[in-house]
Amino acid sequence: MQHPSKLPNIGTTIFTTVGNLARKHNAIDLSQGFPNFEADNRLLDLVSKAMHDGHNQYAPMPGYYGLRDVISQKIETLHGHSYHPESEITVTVGATQAIFTAITAFVHPNDEVIVLKPAYDCYEPAIALNGGVPVYLELKAPSFAVDWTAFKNLISPKTKMVIINTPHNPSGRIFSRGDMLQLQEVLRRTNILLLSDEVYEHIVFDGQQHESASRFKDLASRSFICASFGKTFHVTGWKMGYCAAPKHLMDEFRKVHQFNVFSVDHPTQRAMAEYLNTKEHYTHLNRFYQEKRDFFTKGVDGSRFICKPSQGTYFQLLDYSNITDEADTDFAKRLITDYKLASIPISSFNLNNRDDKVLRFCFAKKEETLERALDILQGI
Predict the structure, then answer these.
(1) Cofactor(s) for this protein (predicted)?
(2) Can you say whether the dihedral through the CA atoms of 59, 63, 69, 75 is positive or negative?
(3) Last residue of some domain: 250, 279, 308?
(4) Beta strands 315-319; 306-307: pairing state
(5) Minimal CA–CA distance to 361: which of 323, 286, 307, 301?
(6) Which of 1, 5, 77, 188 has the fewest CB atoms in 10 Å of its CB?
(7) Residue 314: domain span
């Protein structure tokens, strides 16, 4: 039987390719975005307690109310915007499901969705599956700044949605208050929706502030805020996040959510609700990850790599143009096979696989892992 693919241009992801090669060659893996250290034992104990307390059946479709309530309090405390926990917050299977659900709920065939490239690889397939058309704005290395005039020129009568990601994966750039105000002004007199991917919301460096879309009145009125507990609390395998949006948008979001997922792991939600009541569990992360970023970037000093310290996320880009003219995919492969160190070539995220001679390294690792990686980088 012959069936045409709905995603004919989607092959094996770069993460799978690099991960398999790294395992084959026993390489130090700084490619994929997950820690190699354990989560807080307090959080693990809370999950175990919730299981033993009998919270092992379905949670409510939008999520355990206690968790939605504490999420609402967190957003209001940090960003000054109030989301009603009953009708405007939904617990999701990670941010990826939240992103997919928001796109599916609103993007119709031939609707245009503006995507800023380089971009995380889950946006465009979700758009394509729903018959939408990605429209690209290219951010250029090394600053990855947004050209807001060029952005405005992409708006058309067919534009249904804009997707942003701050702090930004893979560049590590954060959107400034000025960026968000310009975005708000461009969208103000339109019906365009904003999908704001904020999974690294608690990982921002050098005293800077995460400018959530929820901080800006007009943006908040048209936005889906997507976040991740997995990224925040070093438990990416738990696949738990949330989405916040005004009620009239969340009503449509939940129509898809209830048939796609229905509800999320119940004992973990109970544990998260209690764990989030201690604000230091997430407010200390900026300092925790900045120490790792600084350790990594200082360790690169004196090497032949060019390093502009990341503003946020737990990724660091390294420019290798002083070392070789190889394509980033070839150099990344050679780093694994010859040097036993895995990274991600940024061309995989770029429009038309543009090659900026830049690799992405994840520094959410134990110090001894980073030390071994830095020894390799210094020797190249």
Answers:
(1) pyridoxal 5'-phosphate
(2) positive
(3) 279
(4) antiparallel
(5) 307
(6) 1
(7) 14-39+283-378
